[in-house]
Amino acid sequence: MKTYVLKRILSLIPVLFIVSIMVFIIIHLTPGDPASVILGEEASEESRAELREELGLNLPIHQQYFDWILGVLRGDLGDSFFMQQPVTQAIFEHLGPTLSLTILSQITAIIIALPLGIMAAKRRGTFTDQSFMALSLLGISIPNFLLGLFLILILAVNLQWLPVAGYQPLSAGLFNHLKFLIMPAIALGTMQAALIARMTRSSMLETINTNFIKTAWSKGLHERKVIYKHALRNSFIPILTVIGQTFGMLIAGAAVTETVFNIPGLGQLIMNSVERRDYAVIQGTVLFITVSYVFINLFVDLMYGIIDPRVRLNQK
User: Fold this and answer.
1) What is the dihedral angle through the alpha carbons of 9, 10, 12, 18, rounded to the nearest 10 degrees?
2) Which of 64, 98, 124, 253 ranks highest by number of CB atoms within 10 Å?
3) Whether residue 239 is found in the same domain as residue 290
4) Is there a single domain that holds both residue 215 and residue 296?
């Protein structure tokens, strides 16, 4: 197991190196002069030149990358020109709302998807199966921002059950915290629920038709034991893969939902920084989200070896 874990961790080094290069290049290839955007069109050329020098934008791009990556390795993502604070501090100030939203969205998606996927597999070809798959297709097709607007119109405006938008931290009370996150969590998690449900159904169908499941049925084992203990466990690796990928997608895709519901998370931080061309914040936040996605996939990779020991044996 130690060898398996070590190999997986070492494999991340080139991935993270490539990710850092891509993040840096994409940000710096954006057209337009950052100094002009920051200071405005009326600023003098001398002021713009001073700002370029202050931000290091007058250096060759390879030197800018080298200086930036050295700071990243020291845990220094730079300073925000507009917020006048370290980028690391800005990220952690906005991390709480995004983390709460993504965790609640993922929990909602799993609670909805797993039972529906298992039930659809058990009743393959029936009206129930076809109905669930039609709903999952609808869930994949509707953009989360559009679903969010529908939820606001129905639940907040017409029925007035929930607040239209905003955010309350957990310190304000669990009920108040969840009250502001229910609609965005449903809007953000619906597509993920549809993906997980379809993968659950597909993976369960493959396992249910195997010989060892037929043997379990022939022994007269209870349906719940056959389905949940034997079939679901042996089907769970592809399901876990989708869950891990969708959780990373939730973190990366929360920007639009946070904008619709006015949640002060990482998404809003990126959107505001893009408008102001705050390079340090954009680079640091995008890198943080990307690295988080990579480590989520590492965690899922390690879970493979726990769920199915054959994975560890194959990696020797």
Assistant:
1) 170
2) 98
3) no
4) no
